[in-house]
Amino acid sequence: MDTPKPVEDTPDVLRFQTVVKAGETGNFTVKEERDVVQSVTITNGAEDTIRHFINLTEASAALKAKLQDALKIKGEWDVVRRELTQVQADLSRLNADQDRIRKNLRETPKEAEVYDTYLKKLAAQEKEIDKLTDQQKKLMNDEFKARKKYDDFLANIEG
Hints:
The chain contains three helices and two strands. The protein has 159 residues and is mainly alpha-helical. A hairpin with a 4-residue loop joins strand 1 and strand 2.
């Protein structure tokens, strides 16, 4: 940069030629400029990596804003995943409780007062299981869409 072309240019060395009178010394300044590009791939499990890049002074304001948006989208996905996990836990709990109630029904005489209580509880749980199963299907679909939105957003960040 702002320097005459070298007389020899090899992968390791640049050689320049300059004229210096006999018995004298001279200075020859070479200015080099190099473009440095760094590429980073951010995956959908990289919240800490995203936060790291947000805190870098080298990152542009535009990139930091996009990364902040990525964290918001990730937060939306996390909410759906937590809801789905809770629904799945509720379904597991109800299924285990239904097994217990069915065993009690098998061992309890039909004339016993508690038999009707068991039947009512079993029927109520069936309704709740149906409701939770519908909710689970919706949340599984929502979770897929939220993950895809996040993955697509990360795949298209440039900066």
